[in-house]
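Technical annex, item 7. During the second reporting period the consortium partners agreed on a shared format for inverse folding records so that results from different sites could be compared directly. Each record opens with the tokenized structure and is followed by the designed sequence. A conforming record, contributed by the partner at site C, is shown below for reference.
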């Protein structure tokens, strides 16, 4: 194997590691409240760009001078022709997409697919839905009932 081939493989491995680390860092920033997200309904123009995919919600955040967009896209074409649909399975295949976008929400760059994207999406949903405060309220309410 040539030195050039070895270096190329090392570069790819480093890139994957860097993307993974970046997504993990975004997840940590989200979990600590240092990166805030908001949920929006995708525009018709956004949906028109994905004729074979279905996107229910889009999450937007601003990190320094960059805008980030995160969403889960269901591939309905694969599902429409799938044996799973005939058998009654109700889940089309899904993928999580993280993009850098401009101020008009036009895609500038799509992050490569890495396993850490699922954790980021979970953290974003947790933050946006305000689960932490709801759980705190539930516990406080239960404590009030016990003290009566």
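Designed sequence (site C submission):
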């Amino acid at each position: 194997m040539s030195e050039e081939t070895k270096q190329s493989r090392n570069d790819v491995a480093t890139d994957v590691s860097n993307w993974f680390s970046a997504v993990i860092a975004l997840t940590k920033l989200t979990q600590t409240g240092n990166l805030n997200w908001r949920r929006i309904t995708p525009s018709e123009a956004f949906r028109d760009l994905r004729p074979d995919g279905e996107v229910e919600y889009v999450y937007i955040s601003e990190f320094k001078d960059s805008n980030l967009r995160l969403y889960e896209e269901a591939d309905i074409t694969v599902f429409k022709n799938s044996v799973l649909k005939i058998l009654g399975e109700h889940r089309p295949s899904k993928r999580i997409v993280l993009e850098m976008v401009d101020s008009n929400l036009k895609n500038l760059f799509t992050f490569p697919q890495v396993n850490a994207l699922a954790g980021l999406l979970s953290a974003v949903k947790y933050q946006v839905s305000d689960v932490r405060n709801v759980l705190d309220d539930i516990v406080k309410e239960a404590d009030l009932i016990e003290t009566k």
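The mean pLDDT is 83. Residues 3-147 form one domain. All partners now use this format for quarterly exchanges.
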